[in-house]
Amino acid sequence: MSFPISDTVPKEETQAASFIEHFATFDGRGTVIAILDTGVCPGAVGLSVTTTGQPKLIELIDCTGSGDVEMHTEVEAEVDTVTGTRTLTGLTGRRLTLPATWPIPPSNKYRIGWKDSSPLFPTDLVRAQANKRRLRFDKEHHKLLSSATLSIPPAIVSTPSSTSSDAADTVDALKDLAANWSDPGVVWDVVALHDGVKWRAAIDINESGDFEGAKLLATYSDELEYHSFGDDTRLNYSLNFYDDGNLLSIVTLSGTHGTHVAAIAAANHPTDPRQNGVAPGAQIISLKIGDGRLGSQETPQSLVRAGIELARLKPDVANISYGEPGATYNFGKCIEIFQEEAVRKAGVIIVSAAGNAGPVLSSIGHPSGNSGILTVGAYLTEKMPGALYALLDDVPERPFSFTSVGPTLDGAVGVDVFAPGAAITSVPEYTKHSVQLYNGTSMACPNAAGSVSLLVSGLKQSQIRYNPYRVHAAIRNTAKQFGDPFKIGFLQVEAAWTHLAIPSLRHNLDVLYDVKVGGINHGRGLYLRSESETSTEQRQSVKITPLFTNPDDAETTVQMLEFEAQVSLECTVPWIKAPEFVLIASVGREFLFNVDPTGLAPGLHVGDILGYDTNQKNIGPLFRVPVTVCKTDLAADSALRRFGDLEFNSGEIVRKYVAVPDGANFARVETDEFKWTKTFPVTPNFTGELVMCQYCTSLGKTIVSVELEFHGLQVSAGSDVEGSLGTRASGDLIFLNSGNAALAHCDIHSRLRRESISVIAASLDKVQKSLRPIEAGTVSPLKSRDVLPDGRQLYELVLNYSLKVSEEGNVLPFYPRTGGTFYDNFFESVWIFVFDSQKALKSFHDAKIRPISLKEGTYTIKMQIVSCNVQILDKLKNTPILVNFDVKSVTLTSYKTLGGLISDTDKFSATTLLKGESTPFWLSGVEGSALPKFAAPGDLLLGSLKVTDALTVHKVAYLVPSESAKEKEKPVSSSIPETAAPSADAQSAAASGKDELADAIRDLQITHLKKLSDSPSKRDVLLTKLEMEHGKFLPYLVARLEIHGADFEKSKIEEDAALVEKAAAAILEVADRDAVAIYLGLKNDAASGSEASKKKAKEFDVRKDAIVLALLWNARVAKHRLAVIGSETAEVASKAFDESLVSLAQWLGTSDGKYVSLWVWWLKNKNENGTALKAIGKYLGDGKNVASGDVEKTKIWEELVGYKKAILEKLGWKIWVDYEAKWAFKKAPPSYVLF
């Protein structure tokens, strides 16, 4: 018995195999299928050539932007006069050597760019390559560690407790380096040239700078060439150029999914045709919509660009095995392009996967379910279990239990046809295997798309006119029925071909009949679920409007004038009544119909009004008006439902419709047999669907009993002491301090049953801030890739925001106007990128919001909004974004009475409420130290209110109140701290009641000193004046030291060094180190908390800061002298520097970056490199020292990184030198990455 290899891609059941047997040349040849997915691997088996020997993959396009490389930088090569070797300096800093075989551009100029590899590699490959790099790194590192260990003196080895040597510290430093190793990834240099005919580019995939082995590629569609990132990855890539070479797109894969999908649709195996896809003669266009930066998720940007490419390239068929949830149909920029530009104007037949969120009703995701798009569900055929799943027993044919089903929320049927939902076929080379089993509607969709390709291939060769709507009608009306409640059938290719060969009268099959049922939502069908809808007879109007392809063409105008559909209406069920006939012209026609669901039994009921051409009834209905009714079972106890002894076999589904009682806000479902319980929120007065299903490949019979119990605990809140100001429905956001009152009066009401109430508490664990742009955004046109098919240019609005993160934690930036939408997004695209102060990208966000972890610092948020409507973008130039910060939870205590809240007594305790009972409680406010330290007035604290142990269903918000009044303080200069100087002249001045105006003038003069850095003569005059009048005033002395220090940093001459020492000495004299040391050691006064003690503490803090500044500058001067003097005085200078460090450490501490920088320099100067590395590692490894945007910390950080690099180079540790160089580039790239 041979293996059923032909069943690994099911084709017999759909009649695709027999169709090719009957029509050998109708195998897809002459057709093109676009695959909108994760990308298609050009090296995968079966994807090289078609059955006629043509190239299989004719376009590879990245629509996501994840592979974009900015190529604006133009340079000339340096030519070695002896060897003729041409070299460049890349943007990474590497020296790049160009092969002699490369053509020399006529302009003699090259374009250079750089690219981080991570967005280009699939997630699983990123992890695998990182592991390989770590293994290679560890081998080299082990050699260094072994060598360093052998160099430790024997005394240190035998006596571990003895004083550590630099050799031992070297070993420790190496161990610390390895422990903190983090994969730097791969950063490539990219070089492009114009050879006089076209642009070509190559990538330095080895990061060596040597391009000798690099493949010089043109745009893929020009030469159909691709290359690999190496044998260790086997990840293939190709290139595309845009905007006259200014933008290069590196096209790779974001996963295996797209290749598998393409192979189902059109793989061709010349040596074994049994493994072929459905349409082996078809060619393929790959439109990558899965963004590697987001795993493989599609984005509004990638979808719009894919739609633009569909309209430009005009493939015959487009396969979309992707999808996201959506509530609004036939809406959104992406859907608009698909429907109007790709389908109606370009004639593309779009086939889309229904989704895998079934079997619950209305689970179809976008773009499926939208008009003009053929939606495919997944079906399990009789042969598939044996060939694909290796099951012990047979299972019945039926749709896969996971397949999403309709109706759509606006009443349309949703799914158009079912197709086989699994296959074993090709996957990309990087997986290191050739084929794999996948199942889902993602596999059913390309099976159907391949079948459509067969039909189109036959239509083209037979010169039969067709359009997408005609093909849709043929597939729907000829599908094999199997008992689906919505009358959706299983795809039959030969039957559809027979249907397509029937001549159409008056083009009645060449249009899309747009159905709009009357009512507020104008649905494409009638969907009745609520008790009020299903308990009364409904009379509705419906308008049927024919939509024509190419509506602006003259030929279409003729068709519209000639169009006349003489339609008979048939109702498939007795509870629907409609007129017998209706005449429909191109303008459309409206009629009334009745639906009477009152006599229906509980359960799901589906009926249709079918419209037939009276002259050709045999072709099937021209349109259908679907009616779906979900009838509830009215039980005696609406809050408790039990469904006992339900029997299931493979794939069987049981649906129960339950009215959610008024007042319910959560429910619990429990199964007896499996002891499984789940609690979840519900919405009152809606009809819920309880769906139970045994998985379609699960064998045997199962008996299950299910209990569904509804609960209703309603909470209302207000700041009025007499009662609640208003009620918020369960699950809505409840404001606990309306009117900015620091308390909340709440009521809890049990609506359905006896409820156990826990100790009520509100937990607030997020701070939400609203950020405005730093300045008004700018609107500018995008480039050639972003022009809509109708010629409208897309524009971008780029907004910059400053984000201050006060402590490390999770941060969530988002733009609420996108509403989390993808296919039905109003904008063409919205991106949010977060960068640190060095332009390093920290995170990116699109329609799906996701938190990120950020360290303390200041970040730049860049938001890009894309639209063709400039007026709308202009209105958004100052639009805010919201940012949520995770914080340590703040708990609001609950009390029984207002008096209890005020006196902190009579706290709320656990209790029980009977049905209909209520009880009040009071929640405390959040003030003072309880507030997160960075929460400002106007911010929101977000969290939840827990009233029962079962589930948290109430979201709450607390408005951070305005600051409490503070004691009025004497105004002082913001840059000059006030201090009680202990000098005699200051005391006498205070005693004599010195005029405040004079103090203000003095402070202003001190502040003005720094502004005179470009006018030394004016500054010296002012310094002299202040010296005479306020020579013992500490703020003046601090300002003078800072000025002389800045001069010394520039000049490095001894004269300026002496001025620094003199200024430092004056500070140490006035500040009185001994007095400050005694005060700081006692800390008694500050502990009392009085205003006098606080003022004194502030004074001594200012004096301490001045002392530290003086000691720091003394150490810097000593360091300079030690670095420049001769060996004869080195001992004296060394001693002076040592003493300055000791003094500084006493006041500053040894962990402060200012001290660490000096200490490391000293160790490096003494060749104690191991100890220096250890100190650097300790400082850099502390997260609080990485402050993005902090100028002083950034300077220290860069200085220590420079020392580290120099020490590593001196030690000859090349692997660590290269490692640091990579991270240095990634942490401070030359430019912001592109959206």
TrEMBL record:
MF term (GO), any: aminopeptidase activity
Domain Tripeptidyl peptidase II second Ig-like: 752-934
Record protein name field: tripeptidyl-peptidase II
Enzyme class: hydrolase
Top-level division of the source organism's lineage: Eukaryota
GO cellular component, one term: cytosol
Family label: Belongs to the peptidase S8 family.
Catalyzed reactions: Release of an N-terminal tripeptide from a polypeptide
EC number, UniProt record: 3.4.14.10
Keyword set includes Ribosomal protein: no
Low complexity: bias regions: 980-989
Keyword Translocase carried by entry: no
Tripeptidyl-peptidase II first Ig-like domain span: 513-629
Chain's gene name: TPP2
GO biological process: proteolysis
Signal sequence range: none
UniProtKB keywords: Aminopeptidase, Hydrolase, Protease, Serine protease
Organism: Physocladia obscura
Active-site residues per Swiss-Prot or TrEMBL entry: 37 (charge relay system), 257 (charge relay system), 442 (charge relay system)
Domain Peptidase S8/S53 span(s) in chain numbering: 28-486
Stretches for region Disordered: 968-989
Pfam families found in the cross-reference section: Peptidase_S8, TPPII, TPPII_Ig-like-1
